[in-house]
Amino acid sequence: MMTIIFLITVASPCKYIHDKNMTEENKAYLMDTASQNILVYCHMNHTGLGACGGGGWTLVMKIDGTQGNFHYGSNLWNNKDTFNPAGGKTGFDTQETKLPTYWNTPFSKICLGMRIGQQINFVTVEETASSLYSLISDGQYRGTSLGRNTWKGLIGSQASLQTNCNKEGFNAACGGIKVRMGIISNNEEDCVSCDSRIGFGTDDSNTCGNKACCGADNGNINIKAMGYILVQ
After folding, report:
1. pLDDT of 9-33, one tens digit each?
2. Separation CA 15–CA 124 (nearest Å)
3. How many C-alpha atoms does 205 have within 13 Å on its Cβ side?
């Protein structure tokens, strides 16, 4: 049997393969990232991504909420260094990774997933950018408009947030809480002293998941999730 190896040199690699009907196999494909050739996982078929749907998604990061590698203050958010590229060859497992696709892949959609136990929930963020790095690395807040219920969908029925503030997007901050991507909420009618959030890359020991207290709508919780970030 002949094995076909693609060396993809276009800007949006997995989407290119998908749109050209080359293959719909979910696996790592060899990509030219300017500085090096590297294997990057592509989710090609139309199943397994829930709300994201479609195919041709390029993996960017995987974050383990129980680990501190992707803490809000980590340099991994503002540099162009890879982290455990071997973990970028596989799909929705527990291997953390950061790939060159973080800084060199343009997109019009982001697929965010959180795994709790054996359940993975996904949401789509409609956002056009030259890279995820361009949205996050400078630390500037950039808002989104998914709404609190969509963000809670990443966690499922256990999700808990306070009622007010609901500041969402990239580099969101309220009081002592910060997230690189996510939503922050407050029980008071302002964005001064928030105590709940759902997100990726937070500023405490739960670096990916849902943490809430102080009047949150589903009680006090601290759920650490395995997070997946893909772009298209």
Report:
1. 556 678 888 887 777 789 999 987 6
2. 16
3. 1
- Residues 6 or more apart whose CB falls under 8 angstroms from that of 219 comprise 160, 212
pTM for this model (two decimals)? 0.93
* Amino acid found at 98: K
Contact 29, 18 (CB under 8 A): no
- CA distance readout (Å), 57 to 11, 13, 22, 105, 149: 13, 9, 14, 11, 24
State the pairing for strand pair 37-43/107-116. unpaired
Read off the DSSP letter of residue 3: P
Q: Return d(Cα 51, Cα 55) in angstroms, integer.
A: 12
Q: Is the dihedral of CA 16, 19, 25, 26 positive or negative?
A: positive
Q: pLDDT tens digits for 133-168? A: 999 999 999 999 999 999 999 999 999 999 999 999
